[in-house]
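User: I've been trying to design a sequence by hand for this structure and keep getting stuck. Would you show me what you'd pick, starting by listing the structure so we're on the same page?

Assistant: Good idea, let's start from the same input. This is the structure you sent:
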């Protein structure tokens, strides 16, 4: 349903995404995981053509049968208002601070063609669905009167109002404390399953992504270095970077923020080595690694890009 095919994004000539090939099937949840600056947000933004000024994208992003790069203004608006919903890290950036929660949700529903008289009732139902209590009071409140966790539930309720085919969630719970994080993610996942919506879930927290998603794609310096089924993460992770993420102990950086630490500093996409993007930090790097770029190839239950991995010779059936 969503397909990135050799997507490359440059900003003023400097690559941010080097080569992203990834698909999300209808109803599937895919986690896009990596340290900050690895290109996760840019990948998500490219779906709705929300790239910053000066950005140039090559390769394709397909949503259903549509090449997103060829959509006109009306097509893009339709996609943004009906087919694809976004949930960002900071719910306060999504909700108008001076309007009530009721007005915010009512407006979303009115945009979907719901009548004025039905919209208020539907808004209450949406809030109840995402586990918000005291619904009548909440509808009258303004964003600053709600905690971050509650407000993120409101944003999720709004995202689900359109029963979107796809939800793009960019670190939706990073700003919340760990317990609230887990509750909010569980609600998002439960409800989107009921609606049949697919999910592209961005996180720097590998374990959290694995708990939510069907498949995990690990990103490093603007490239995807490994893709594997979430339930095989611990058994089948083969890329040295994924293994380093798994070994690293999450340290508490800010309230609720679990940040895995891998020795060395993250590589930026624009001055990555010609060969493997992880070469500067990889404990197993060999001569070939700096010069020859490893391709993302099948291994065990997934795909990984590393020269050290044994490759099966394709058998002729
Ligand atoms: Fe490490 Fe080389 Fe594999 Fe890259 S290709 S991950 S540098 S061993
Ligand atoms: Mg980001």
């Amino acid at each position: 349903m969503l397909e990135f095919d050799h997507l490359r994004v440059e900003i003023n000539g400097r690559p941010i995404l080097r080569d992203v090939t990834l698909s999300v099937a209808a109803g599937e949840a895919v986690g896009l995981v990596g340290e900050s600056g690895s290109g996760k947000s840019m990948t998500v933004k490219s779906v709705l053509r929300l790239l910053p000024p000066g950005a140039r994208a090559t390769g394709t992003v397909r949503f259903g049968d549509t090449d997103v790069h060829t959509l006109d203004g009306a097509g893009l608006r339709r996609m943004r208002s009906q087919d694809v919903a976004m949930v960002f890290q900071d719910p306060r950036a999504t909700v108008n601070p001076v309007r009530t929660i009721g007005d915010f949700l009512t407006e979303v529903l009115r945009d979907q063609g719901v009548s004025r008289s039905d919209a208020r009732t539907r808004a209450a139902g949406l809030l109840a669905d995402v586990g918000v209590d005291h619904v009548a009071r909440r509808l009258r409140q303004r964003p600053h009167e709600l905690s971050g966790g509650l407000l993120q539930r409101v944003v999720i309720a709004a995202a689900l109002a359109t029963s979107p085919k796809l939800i793009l969630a960019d670190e939706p719970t990073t700003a919340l404390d760990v317990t609230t994080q887990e509750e909010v993610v569980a609600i998002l996942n439960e409800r989107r399953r009921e609606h049949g919506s697919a999910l592209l879930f961005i996180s720097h927290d590998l374990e959290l992504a694995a708990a939510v998603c069907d498949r995990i794609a690990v990103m490093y310096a603007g490239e995807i270095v490994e893709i594997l089924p979430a339930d095989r993460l611990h058994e089948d992770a083969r890329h040295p970077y994924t293994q380093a993420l798994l070994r690293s102990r999450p340290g508490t950086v800010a309230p609720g923020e679990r940040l895995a630490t891998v020795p060395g500093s993250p590589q930026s996409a624009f001055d990555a080595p010609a060969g493997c993007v992880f070469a500067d930090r990889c404990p197993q790097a060999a001569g070939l690694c700096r010069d020859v770029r490893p391709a993302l190839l099948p291994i065990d239950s997934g795909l990984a890009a590393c020269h050290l991995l044994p490759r099966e010779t394709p058998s002729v059936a």
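That's my pick for every position. To get oriented when you compare it with your attempt: The mean pLDDT is 90. The CA atoms of residues 86 and 168 lie 5 Å apart.
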